[in-house]
Structure formats: structure tokens, C-alpha cells
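Side project, low priority. Logging it here so it doesn't get lost.
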Amino acid sequence: MTTTTAIFLALISLLSHLLVLTAQPDFFFHKCFNESGNYTKPSAYHTNLNTLLSNFTSDTKIDYGFYNYSNGETPNRVNALGMCRGDVKPDSCRSCLNNAITLLPNLCPYQKEAFGYYDLCMFRYASRQMFGIYQDHDFQNYSGNQTDAVDANKYKDSAIKLLHSLKERAKVGEGSYHKVAAGNATADQSQAAYGLVQCTPDLNEQDCFDCLTDSIFYIPNCCQDKVGGRVIKLNCNIRFENFLFFDPAHINSVQLPLSPADLSPPTDSTSSQGGSKKSRTTVIAVVLIGTLVAVLILFFIIKRSKKTHGIEAVRKDDDEMKPTDQMLQIDLNTIKLATDNFSDANKLGKGGFGPVYKGRLPDGQEVAVKMLSKHSSQGDLEFKTEVMLLAKLHHRNLVRLLGFCLEKTEKLLIYELLPNKSLDFFLFDPNQQAYLNWIERFKIIRGIARGLLYLHQDSRLRIIHRDLKASNILLDEELNPKISDFGTARLFKVDQTRSNTNRIVGTFGYMAPEYVLYGQCSVKSDVYSFGILVLEIISGKKNNSTFHADSTESLDLLNFGWKNWREGTASSIVDPVLRNGTRNEIMRCIHIALLCVQENAADRPTMASVSFMLNSFSSSLPLPSERRFLVNYSSSSQTMALRHESSETTRSSDEHGSNSNQPSRNDLSITELYPR
């Protein structure tokens, strides 16, 4: 082929590409996922993708607006999913999806994963599994209208309450193929808000609920004071407007009225703009407060406006804990009734904070009630820390705070009840370890990584947990991990990366050396703890367990792991229960763990990098830096305590070398809340 011919063919290809782009309507939003890997042309993946797309909407019997297909075998398997808005007719649905199928591969010509969103439909494909999985919890696109609402606060509250009500209906679904709800609500006749929420129907109820809750969380970021906006995620989307944007004849919409008193503005605000009010269609949207989560989210939406320099100021008095706060306060008598007056039969355990009780609220919700120890000198501060933090945090891999009680001498936190206790209950008990096969352990590792990434990067405050360990990872009924116990957490300014502290808190064995020895606290401190935790999950052993490398040398888990890695025998640290696990995945996780526990904090990856490494097996990993010293931190804890003899650091009872299989206690002091 001559050079001229090659140039001519390239120009023809470019012209064809441009014609495709101009012939199709633009997406409202699209994304090409570079982090998910690329493919070449020609290749097996490219062929599988083209074959899948060419037949995607060929089944005209599908009249419910949802398509999901796969083609090919791993590693060149392609999965694709398309969904139309719940009120779109079948012909219009296929037309919208066909536009997306034509346009998206041209906008993302080499990426294995891509996502496109129109008003009437969304379409995505990827090499990873996607069906029935709520993925990328922290991925979203949000945007608001340009027009301001007349009474912004009142309108915003109306829209948010409406969306929370609709998510309760959408998660249940209408038949097997729809998880969508739409409607409006009225209070007075000044403004109107209409809302629609929808999940991909392959999600279960809890995942749909979580996805929509995560989406509603972002409304203040996108649509503050606006008459409309939307949040788009891979598995769900929400939208609200001051006009009827969906077809009520083809979707089961509802109208849920409230009294005007439910939306009455604060006494010092004005609801009038003089004679300049724009005429609008009737009806205001609002719903009854349907869930505890709705109240929590409203709390930090209102509080967010008071945020300065990335951190909300904590007052030195108890004003923020008074019942006038938007957060749900539960009275003491209700909690006593729920826990049978804190009976021993309902006692779940006890830590440094105090005992934890199982309870059932009047609405049937099972909860865990955490009681502040009256003898704890740091109790009040820990209580405030957890309330202020958890009220602002919302992520699938963080434990959810449902309410609190501040009455008489009692200070109580009410959490969602997680039936499977903590990770250490399964991990370090020979009778329970078999329940955690490699699939479950790998899921737990990735879930913890997502939760830490949210704390470090994606939450509105940068938060360092400082006491990440197996006993602070709670497991739900499906063994999904949730990070708990924020009593020792430290808040950072958004642009702050490190601070020094004179008081060291945490659990020896999990704490980074620069933190123990010099009080240097950063996000890399949590990364180190995560690395230790991963080694524990893989080995089924506590970090202070003793391993005999030879007749004269005994090592703790970290140094035993590093020694075996260096000698090419890393499989020696793997729990025998995992013998049927994927060896490449297990070795890769050991590699990642050793990167996280490197002595120099600057050498450790961020949690964003860790999450990428855990989810992208095509990327190569750097080698961990050689450890200069083999130090058993558990055996040298006395030296570290002397270095901080004024720190009042206390160790967990099971960190003194005990081999108890009981979940560990957390008898810890905490540092000051704010960076100095």
C-alpha cells in the first residue's frame, strides 16, 4: 500500500467518524473509562463488541425498556446494558438506544468501558461484570438548571423530600422489569416540583435504595437554589423540575400532599420577591419524611451552608447536640423500650467507648445502640466526634448512623444493626474462618478500600480514621464490609495532607511507624493500617501472631510476610482455607499490601491507586521498597510508649500477644479534633 493510499484511507475513516458523530444527537452526558483498560483494532474484544452492538435491540418483543447481553469469553467478554426511562414507549426506546449504540463507540473508540446518557435512555458496556451489581458508588454526574427557585429553601426541601419518597417506591419496583417512580406533591400553589427516580431493574432492593440515596446526597452540590437538576450514576438516576417532564399516562406517578405548615420557611426569611415573582405552574413538591436517612441527609444539607475552608467549625458548647438540630434525636424512653431497658440478653459487646446493645424501634427497625461509658474521660469528646462525622458521611462501606440520644446522663448512638458482627469474629476463629472463602475475603478487601477512598478523597471532609482494624470492620448479612468507630478520627482541611499530634491513638500493630514514633498523621497512616489488615485477611492471623522463620528467629505477621515475599515463598502466609482461591489474585493482594506498609510514607500508594490496583489486573505493580529493619512492633511497644509517655495511649487487650478469638476491645484515648 502506497503512502498516498494510506493517507486517503485514513481521511475516509476520519470523515466517516465525523459523519457518525454529527448524525447522532449529542449525549446529555457520556464518559470513557480509561482506567478500565483499552482494546486495539482489530482484536477479539473489538469483534465481540461489534457483534454485541449490532444485535442489541433486535428483540422487538422486549417492551419494558431494559436490555442486557454479553458476548465472548473472558478476558475478551463484553457486557452491555441499556435502559430507557420508565415512561418511554418501546419504539422510542429502541430508537434512543440505537443512537447511543452508534455514537458511544465513536466517542470512546479504544476504551473497554463506556457510558452514555440521553434524557430518554442510558447505555453502557464494559469488560467487567455489571449485571446485578451496584458499581462505582462514588461515580456520578450532576447538573442543575440555570433558573433560581422563587423560595429556594422551601423548594429545595420539597424536592428532596419528594425524591426520598419516590426512592422507597422505586426500590420495590413495578413487576420484574421496572424500578422507577415519579410524582409530585402539593402544599400551596406557589411553585411546582416534579420528580422521577429510576434504577436498573437488575439491582436488588437494597442496592437500588443505596444508589438513589447516594444520588440524592449530591443535590446540594448540583442544584442549590435551582428549580431543577439531575444526578446520573451507572445504575440509577434522579431528576426533578418545576414542570411536568415525564408522561404520567405511561408511568405510575403519585401525588402526595402536605399541609403548608410542613413547608413553612424560617421566621426570619421572606417568601416574597416583591412584584417580581415569575408566574409558574401550580403545585409544590413535598412528601412526608419517610425514612431516617432522609432526616440525616437534610441535616448535613442544612449544615453544609455553614461550612468554611472545607471543615465545619465545632462549637465548644453543646449547641450542636440540642434537639433543634435537623438530625433525628430519639428519646431515652424509646431506646429503653427498644433494648428491654439495656438488658444483658440484648448486649452485643463492650469496647472502650462502652457497651453496645441490640434493639428494635417501634417501627420494627433493628438497631445497635452504643452507650457512652460514664467512666470514660474521653467519652463526651468521642461522642461528639462520631455524631459530627457520621452525620456528614454516607457510603455503602461505612456504618450508617440512624440517630442519637442526649438525655439526662446518657449519651447514645443508634446505628443500623449489622447481623454478622465484626470481621475479626470470622477471621481469627478457626470455627468461623471457613465462612470466608477467597471470593468473600476479596470482596471485603475491595469494600474497605472503597470506604477509605471515600473518607480520604470523596467525602466533603478529608477524614483519617486512625484506628482501622479487623474489629472495626462490621459485616452485613451478605458479608459486605462497613467501616465503623470514628471516635478517634481526625478531620483535615481539604488541601491538607499531613499534621503532627502530641497524642497517639489507635492500636499497636496497625499504626504506621512515622505516626507511632513521631506523631506524623496523614492519609498514608490509614494506607499502612489497610496493608496490615489485608495481610490479616489473607493469612487468617492477627498481626501480632508469632511465626518461627527458623530455630532462632521469630517474626510477627508483617515481617514474616516481607521475608517470604523477598524469598519467593509468599504463599507460605496464605490461610489454608483459601487453597481453592485464585492464586494470582491472592499474590497480587499480598503485593499491594506490602506496597501499603512500606516504611517511607511517601512510597505508599494513595487509596485511589490501591482501588485501581485491586480492580485492574492488567496493570503492573511496582516493587515494594526493601525494609531496612525487621522490627516486631508488638514487642517494641514499650519503647514506643516511652517515646510518647505523656500521650496516655492505651492498648487493646488483645494486642498484648493474646491469642483470644474474641473480637478485640477498643480502649483508646483520642487526639484533638482539628489540625493545628
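Brief comment: Residues 423-655 form a domain with the Transferase(Phosphotransferase); domain 1 fold (CATH 1.10.510.10).
Revisit when time allows.
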